[in-house]
Amino acid sequence: MEIDRQATALREPNVWNVPPWFNKQQNRLEDEEENQEQIFQYSWTIPHYQVLHDQTPLGEYIFSDVFSCASGDGLHTHMWRLSLKPQSTNTYWGHVGGYLEAFQSVSEKVANLKSRTVAYQIKAYRLERDPTSNVAEKLVELASSKKTLTTFDFGTDSSSWGYHKFCETRNIFPNGDISTNVNLVIRVSIWNNSHHNNTHEKDLSFFERLFNDKRFSDVQFTFDDGSTIYAHRVILAARSTYFDKMFDGEWLETQNKKIQIIGVSFDTFHALLYYLYTKQIPTEFPIDNLAELYSEARMRVLPKLAHAAAGLLVEHAGTDNWDVVFMLGLKHDDSFLRQGGLKYAIKNWNQVVDDEKIKQIAEMGGMKAIEQLFSARYFGV
């Protein structure tokens, strides 16, 4: 098989999309005993594939839903999408192209990761009724790529890789009859072993090494519990207009070497300073503190940090905190947070409709909040 980057047309908005009812998905995570590598498998079932084969324009693509799995080290979410090119042109005539595309997740963006390296394998099956059983079905393997170690570069032509000659068309249709009803299954296996990705093994940058280093610091931030964070005025001032004014103005803190921090948790302020040094939120930062980090970033005029915290809040929205995300969006007039909370509530309406959180939202946000919630429920976000 020939491996190649997927054509740019994959990301063009006018491609022919698969109707929602074509997408049935199944995924599972398991350990391969022979080498302890972590495997994620996703199956894309396409009923009545012959319809797509007939109606998809020459050289264009059909897509699976976007799906996700955890990185090998558990620190990030990996987002993917499968695609097929039912009818290829020229050199690849008579073959179906099969591809895997990577999308940068919010956590990867926050960590400033520009690429992802994994091993992957794509297989194609035809779902047939088992002649030995009246109800059972069996998978007949049609094609299999090699297990390939590949680096996916986000937002470039190298974000998608695969095979132009993934599967011969004649193998898909029994007896070569392209009008035959075929239920096709495309399955991808992804080896997420963390040693494939060396981005976590790079040396600490100069600024990372300076963070909280007592030897060269000229300002200390102290907390009620006795904790101290050592920092550098010139770095904070260069990275933030808020701290620039603090250290070069008429504030009380201008000349003080020790600055007492009140009303902010140590973890949150530590993460805020760490971001100014590294442009990253610490991977071990508590999810429960994200709302506080977002508010602090807004107050200290750090829009990029606020955006990163908002992204993580929406990504981790759940039964316990969707209301916090929604109300935070209302408080700061942030449509991204507001809609993130709403989308979770609407998707899980039966679980949240009788929850005390609805009453709390009414008490805290008034009728405006309730109107937005029910408007989204019945008319969409």
From TrEMBL:
Record protein name field: 9520_t:CDS:1
Family matches, as SUPFAM superfamilies: POZ domain (SSF54695), TRAF domain-like (SSF49599)
Ranges where the BTB domain occurs: 217-285
Transmembrane segment boundaries: none
Any one GO BP annotation for this protein: protein catabolic process
Species whose genome carries this gene: Ambispora gerdemannii
Domain MATH: 39-190
A Pfam family that the UniProt record links to this protein: BTB
Source domain of life: Eukaryota
